[in-house]
Amino acid sequence: MDCFYVITGTMDFLSHISFPKFEKASVWMVGAGPGDPKLLTLYAYHALQHADVIVHDALVDSAILSLAAKTATLEPMGKRGGKASAKQGDITQRLIELAQQGLKVLRLKGGDPFVFGRGAEEALPILDKNINVRIVPGISAGIAGSAYAGVPVSDGQSNQVISFVTGHDTSGDVPAVNWQALAQSSPVIVFYMPMKHIAKIQSELLKAGRVPSEPVCAVSRATTPHQLVCETTLANCVEDLNKANIKAPALLIIGPTVEFRQQLAGCFS
């Protein structure tokens, strides 16, 4: 595979790192991380610098988009719950059309493309058109967003299991989860985008045996300058998150590791 070296002004430290060439008529599906541009991978930066067109999610921070090459065209193609959004099929078709025009197409997704990012759903139809696809992982919001709130998702003494759960399925409804199994098997649960169904999530977990006093932490717009954190309990989370004005995009972390927040909250920024 052809490789070359990147040397761009103050980015000279990249000169010893080789990256694959961004070929024309191909699609790179890249994770932009949770929001903070400092958490962008070097691979993602390389893609931003070499793409002809960038089809990006609504949640990709403007500071990240500003790193794109000056010649790149930006196409917002985000999907936001409760707002007019492009349909999934339309997004995939647009990627195919752009690649068939001979362009270097960057599909820029928040977090990681394969963690509740519908990356495979987009990549497979593109591959069916004999268009080359490259997947570039990103830092998932469930890990980085929890960390920036001062909450580790695992600790050797607290848990050996973590569950990452979407707060809604592809239709926007409550996900089809075995709540009993989830509640009993996973000490720490991280919900992505839970706010639309927060009352249902609370109710199902309590019915499945989780303790009302269990610590809960919600993080809105994690890792950005607008990050908002609310620490509460499972019993009080619906009311407290509403009072704290926690809105999407948000994470909900449930479990014993939330108690580390008091000591670790100032260690991430």
TrEMBL record:
Tetrapyrrole methylase domain ranges (all copies) = 27-235
One GO BP on record is: methylation
Alphabetized UniProt keyword annotations: Cobalamin biosynthesis, Methyltransferase, Porphyrin biosynthesis, S-adenosyl-L-methionine, Transferase
Its Enzyme Commission number(s) read 2.1.1.107
Supply the InterPro entries for this chain. 4pyrrol_Mease, 4pyrrol_Methylase_sf, 4pyrrole_Mease_sub1, 4pyrrole_Mease_sub2, CobA/CysG_C, Siro_Cobalamin_biosynth, Uropor_MeTrfase_CS
Under the heading CDD domains, the entry gives:
SUMT (cd11642)
What terms describe the molecular function in GO for this protein? uroporphyrin-III C-methyltransferase activity
Q: In which pathway does it act?
A: Porphyrin-containing compound metabolism; siroheme biosynthesis; precorrin-2 from uroporphyrinogen III: step 1/1; Cofactor biosynthesis; adenosylcobalamin biosynthesis; precorrin-2 from uroporphyrinogen III: step 1/1
Q: Which family does it belong to?
A: Belongs to the precorrin methyltransferase family.
Question: What is the name listed in the Swiss-Prot or TrEMBL entry for this protein?
Answer: uroporphyrinogen-III C-methyltransferase
